[in-house]
Amino acid sequence: MFATNSDKKSLLVMIGSLLIILTATLAISLYARGYRLSLEPRPSVRVTGLLSATSTPKSASVYLDDRLTTATDDTISLPPGQYSVKIVKDGYLPWQKTITIKPETVFQTDARLYRSAPDLRPISLSGAIHPAISPDGAKIVYSVASASASKDNGLYLLELSGNPLSLTRNSPRQLSPNLLSLDWSKFNFEFSPNSRQIIASSPSTSYLLNLDAPISPASLYDISLRLPLIREDWVKNEQEIIRSRLDRLPSVLRPLVATASARNILLSSDENQILYLSQTDGSLPSNLISPPPAQSTQVQNRQIKKDNYYVYDLLNDTNFLIGSHSDLLHPSWLANSNNLVFVRHQQIRIIESDATNEITIFSGQFDPNTVFPWSDGSRIITLLSPFAESGPNLYAIYLR
Prior knowledge:
By secondary structure, the chain is mostly beta strands. The chain has 3 domains: 45-112, Immunoglobulins (Immunoglobulin-like), CATH 2.60.40.10; 121-219, N-terminal domain of TfIIb, CATH 2.20.25; 258-398, YVTN repeat-like/Quinoprotein amine dehydrogenase (Methylamine Dehydrogenase, Chain H, 7 Propeller). Helices cover 12% and strands 39% of the residues. The protein has 2 helices and 32 strands. The chain has helices at 5-32, 227-246, and strands spanning 35-38, 44-47, 49-53, 55-56, 61-64, 67-71, 74-78, 81-88, 95-101, 106-108, 111-112, 119-122, 129-133, 139-144, 154-159, 173-177, 188-191, 197-201, 206-210, 265-267, 273-277, 282-283, 303-304, 308-313, 318-324, 329-333, 339-344, 347-352, 359-363, 366-373, 379-384, 393-398. Strands 6-5-8-9 form a 4-stranded antiparallel beta sheet, with no helix packed on it. A 4-stranded antiparallel beta sheet has the order 12-32-31-30, with no helix packed on it. It has a 4-stranded antiparallel beta sheet with strand order 13-14-15-16, with no helix packed on it. The longest helix has 28 residues, at 5-32. It is elongated.
């Protein structure tokens, strides 16, 4: 049988449609990779890179080399090269970074902007004594001893919940009132590695408290004689946590990391970056893994020096110096971000994990040992007295 003219036309239409689809798909793919048609000085195709300018909050102004270019969220095609990027928004501190645009590569700013004026709100109203945070960053325990109603004095728990459905978030609850022979303000508190128990210790007495069960006078037993064994068991549990985190690091880096405390090696919330304290000098070879095309172009620190904090990126094989142990207090990850929070020179500061955009978010008379990020990264908890006549209370510094 011979094909009719109608069949031939249908076949040509199908082939033509397929070619159009393939051509359009190829054009879209090339455009997404940064290829652009240029008519000057003569028609040609040039290779560019892309800047994906994103920010939290959105609708911030984007400056390239000090020229207003666009607003977030937008993607800009740029010739390969080095650029100074600044992202600004009224009421927020500016974000800026020198970046290198590479051919066929997308650079994403992912700028997190912080308020230029602190938004400070009280959490506790009757004082907060000896606050301690759990290793998982989800709980704070403290005692109250100055409430006008004696029944309000006692041991309290604040859960740092980011769940909007939680009816008790921001609201401390009393775990136990003071008893006739028991004043919780005389105790210090220490969390177990799994964050489910605390040891409450005074000079004469120690109690092991289970946070998953009600605390009653009948459940309180002096564990002073068992305390060394309990702490020994907790140390073993903590070392298991440390080993699991060390296993995530390249083998050449593990001997350089301090392992005395789990606080010395902390995973970011997406578990792609590790903040660690170095215990000795050493060298981190380049290209431990095949680096991705969009690897950070910020200057790295692969010559490790003792007693410094660094951030190693497990996906990008980058290593950045954050600061020295003597100068930088209690660093921790700010959840849902690439940022770290720490105390320096009586200031609460934030820095990106590539050691750029270090800013001060609060400065004043606060307790430098009580600076705790909220579990969703929306605020930071600290202990301060807003004026001389008031006792110290827990306050939240809202970041967004």
